[in-house]
Amino acid sequence: MAEDSRQEPNDEFRDMLREFLEGNSDIDPAKLASAAGLPNDPEAVAQLIAQLQNALSSSGDGVNWGLALEQAKGVAARTTVVSLPAERSKLEQALHVAALWLDEATSLSELSSEPRLMSRTEWVTASMGVWSQLAEPVATSISNSLAEVLQQQAPEEMSEMMDGASELMRNVGGTLFAMQLGHVVGQLSTEVVSAGDVGIPLLDTEQAAIVPQNIADFSAGLDIPVDQVQLYLSVRELAHARLFRHARWLRLQLLSSITEFARGIRIDTERLEALAEGFDPANPEELRDAMTSGALIPPKSPEQLEALARLETMLALIEGWVDVVTAQASFRLPRMDAIAETVKRRRASGGPAESAFATLVGLELRPRRLREAAQMWQKVTDAVGVDKRDALWSQPDLIPTSADIDNPAALIARITGVAVLDDIDQAIEDLLNDDTSERPTE
User: Fold this and answer.
1) CB contact at 8 A, 109 and 238
2) Is residue 16 scored above 80 in pLDDT?
């Protein structure tokens, strides 16, 4: 009977955690919230404690994606302002005009469904499925590594307790990750101006969408008429959506590439062990910085570097094409160049999604060769026209490569079947064919 009354190891560990969450510990819950990357305010701390308490009684295993969605919607809702009917009407008109302008700049057909005007909360709801898909491999790796390190670092007298509490630790780790994911996506909802603003298609359907409140924020302080900003951003969003509707294989390839890259990520357990040994609950900044800076992720393997290069090339090709088509379609806007420059500066500073990808997927999704890719698309457009340019998106094996970005002339030659000289070769050819040069005398 005495043995029957003893607690199971995981029950003992659960009670220890519950004591902490009830405040019977030297660890400040606000510090835990800070280490998890959450804002240090009473509401966030209270929500964190409540969710961790729920995790202790949960029978699930892994990340609570429903909690991530709830957290993100809460962050988005705190700053949401309902768009006025007049503002929505102007945006609907801008999208209609943008579609007409795009018909002149690309052969890709118009969308089959009307673009949506989304609130920040609606954007969160529509995009969370993709964020969860992308973040899941990293979340699993972190949870498993955390449970492994805690088992290794536990004193010998607690080893049996830790061996029986692995599922519980994964629940707690999954809750922390879900809240961090929700906070990041919620913050992102206050910045993105459209569905395609982060460079990849986040909506489940091939649909264009813009966020009126964020477009208004984007326009503030630019000293550019807001209707011109609305038109330019509408053209960009529709161009992005048309591309992914036309190249139906592109979305799956892009998301699969990111997910496969994330699956290759492993946590540096030695670094995590060092953090666990020296962790100061009163000063969790080192742990937070390690989690958000990528310090726990070892250097990329050669295979990952190759995959990253391919991914960055594809992102540059997509964004470069959108830039060229948008410029062609928006030439009527008097301040087009100024708006385009603002978009480029925003993107160069990291864009609204870079910190999200770095934190949640361990990946910097910055198209480093965007300028060169846009120049390539412009040269192709000038040489072969819109129809042949856009036909390159019809199937994966026609897509330009990194080598094509370096040498657009070779790509143009493949399309036309006629060799095209680059600037240096053309200069030599002109010199050799110069009939006006003096001939040597007999």
Assistant:
1) no
2) no
**DSSP β-bridge partners for residue 116:** 209
Alpha carbon separation from 37 to 99, 222, 281, 290 (Å, rounded): 41, 32, 15, 11
- Residue 301 and residue 299: Cα distance in Å, rounded? 6
Residues of the chain with pLDDT > 70, as a percent, come to: 62
Helices 336-348 & 302-329, crossing angle to 10 degrees? Answer: 170
Residue ranges of E strands in 303-434: none
Query: Model confidence over 41-83: pLDDT tens digits?
Result: 666 666 666 666 565 555 555 678 888 899 899 999 998 998 8
- Computed from CA positions of residues 298, 289, 152, 141, in that sequence, does the dihedral angle turn out positive or negative? negative
pLDDT of residue 369: 86
φ, ψ (nearest 5 deg) of residue 418 = -125, 130
Beta carbons within 8 Å of 33's beta carbon, 6+ residues apart: 39, 40, 44, 45, 48
Structure tokens belonging to residue 318: 């997509």
Q: Beta strands 209-210 and 116-117: pairing type?
A: parallel
CA dihedral 182, 186, 191, 194 (to 10 degrees): 90
Query: What would the pLDDT profile of 114-139 be if each residue is shown by its tens digit?
Result: 999 999 999 999 999 998 888 888 77
The pLDDT tens digits of the residues spanning 276-285 come to: 565 555 555 5
The residues, ordered by sequence, that sit 6+ positions from 334 with a Cβ below 8 Å of its Cβ are 228
179 contacts 86 by C-beta, under 8 angstroms: no
